[in-house]
Design brief:
Layout (H helix, E strand, L loop, with lengths): L10 H7 L1 H12 E2 L4 E2 L13 E6 L1 H18 L3 E5 H4 L10 E7 L5 H13 L3 E5 L5 H5 L2 E4 L12 H20 L5 H12 L1 H8 L3 H11 L4 E6 L3 H16 L2 E6 L17 E4 L6 H13 L4 E6 H6 L6 E5 L7 H20 L17
Parallel strand pairs: 3-4, 3-5, 5-6, 6-7, 8-9, 8-10, 10-11, 11-12
Antiparallel strand pairs: 1-2
Bound molecules: 6-O-phosphono-alpha-D-glucopyranose.
EC number: 2.6.1.16
Organism: Nitratireductor aquimarinus
Function: Catalyzes the first step in hexosamine metabolism, converting fructose-6P into glucosamine-6P using glutamine as a nitrogen source.
């Protein structure tokens, strides 16, 4: 298989820029944009009949699953257990008969995810998987697959596979909500329409390079970074920190903003920038009060928000990265882009091997 970088310096940069297109392809596989409905695709279980869903994955795919949990529980009222696959495989979790399993894997070959799948097979529950490689082992051993249409991902740090996994999870959330009767046809239509705008918002997010490069120059001088967010921005904070660690080798931690005072606040000083992901949503004010706690201790804040958030956050920041105002349901897909770009530009400035970071592998097929 021959894939080249086109006009880009790195595969990662190319893959970041492909996102509007691949998100669009992926969503179109699961949604009917013309009439604003969820498509009629096959599932190996009935969302109306299951009482729990167990999700298991590794790395960035795990973080996509964590966002999926917030969505499925909120919109479809479906309780979701989510585990890191290396924990799931050994923790002997009881799986009630009326539950189903969902595995998420770009490669479809990750050893721990595959072992978790086989554990569920032994337990006799229906198995589904979100995979990017359709010929993979995980795809073959599943009862049903939900492909991401990201195309080959070469950069070791996952980018477009992540936003395509989120796109599938968003569509599955609507499928589940419809089956479980937790959304009306009008709500279904409104949410499908919101998702249909995701590629356009993603293109707008890609234009933020200038403010992101400015922050990247700051980050290239620091040793530690704290990422904060609430609700679906919490898994994104974890993903932002993971991306920075993976390719720039800066020590970064992601935290739920509300946990700040239970530990990480002790670390705050001028040396450790705090990146806060906070669109102007239901809990924006709560996150602002966390930022005030950071500012009061001399912490320097990078705020990733939308236009409304930028107007309402009366705080001094090192930099504010302003995205367009996007509907809450779509926001996690869009906010993934600035955090990927931030890690990318930081790594480029620091001169690391962006596509092949040290000690990491694209696909971890050994335990
Ligand atoms: C490795 C990669 C990550 C990826 C993880 C899970 O750690 O470097 O980018 O998220 O494996 O891989 P999978 O193929 O199962 O999604």
């Amino acid at each position: 298989l021959l894939v080249d970088k086109g006009n880009h310096r790195h595969f990662m940069e190319k893959e970041i820029h492909e996102q509007p297109e691949v998100i669009s392809h992926t969503l179109a596989n699961y949604l009917n944009f013309a009439d604003g409905t969820v498509a009629d695709f096959d599932l190996p279980f009935d969302f109306a009949k299951i009482e729990r869903l167990a999700i298991s994955a590794c790395g960035t795919a795990y973080l996509a699953g964590l966002i999926g949990k917030y969505w499925l529980e909120r919109y479809a009222r479906l309780p979701v257990d989510i585990d890191i696959a290396s924990e799931f495989r050994y923790r002997e979790m009881p799986l009630p008969k009326n539950s189903a399993a969902l595995f998420i894997s770009q490669s479809g070959e990750t050893a721990d995810t595959l072992a978790s799948l086989r554990y569920c097979r032994e337990e006799g529950i229906p198995i589904s998987a979100i995979v990017n490689v359709r010929e993979s082992t995980i795809a073959r051993e599943s009862d049903g697959i939900f492909p991401t249409l990201a195309g080959p991902e070469i950069g070791v740090a996952s980018t477009k596979a992540f936003t395509c996994q989120l796109s599938v999870l968003a569509a599955l959330t609507l499928k589940a909500a419809k089956a479980r009767g937790t959304i009306s046809p009008e709500e279904e239509q409104a949410l499908v329409r919101e998702l249909s705008e995701a590629p356009r918002y993603a293109s707008q997010a890609l234009k933020l390079s200038a403010s992101i490069e400015k922050v990247a120059r700051e980050l290239s001088h620091v040793r530690h970074v704290l990422y904060l967010g609430r609700d679906t921005n919490y898994p994104l904070a974890l993903e932002g920190a993971l991306k920075l660690k993976e390719i720039s080798y800066i020590h970064a931690e992601g935290y739920a903003a509300g946990e700040l005072k239970h530990g990480p606040i002790a670390l705050i000083d001028e040396q450790m920038p705090v990146i806060v992901i906070a669109p102007h949503d239901r809990i924006f004010e709560k996150t602002v009060s966390n930022m005030q706690e950071v500012a009061a201790r001399g912490g320097r804040i990078v705020l990733i928000t939308d236009e409304k958030g930028a107007q309402n956050a009366t705080l001094e920041t090192l930099e504010t990265i302003v995205l367009p105002d996007v509907p809450e349901f779509v926001a996690p897909i869009i906010y993934a882009l600035p955090i990927q770009m931030l890690a990318y530009h930081t790594a480029v400035i620091m001169g690391t091997d962006v596509d092949q970071p040290r000690n990491l592998a694209k696909s971890v097929t050994v335990e």
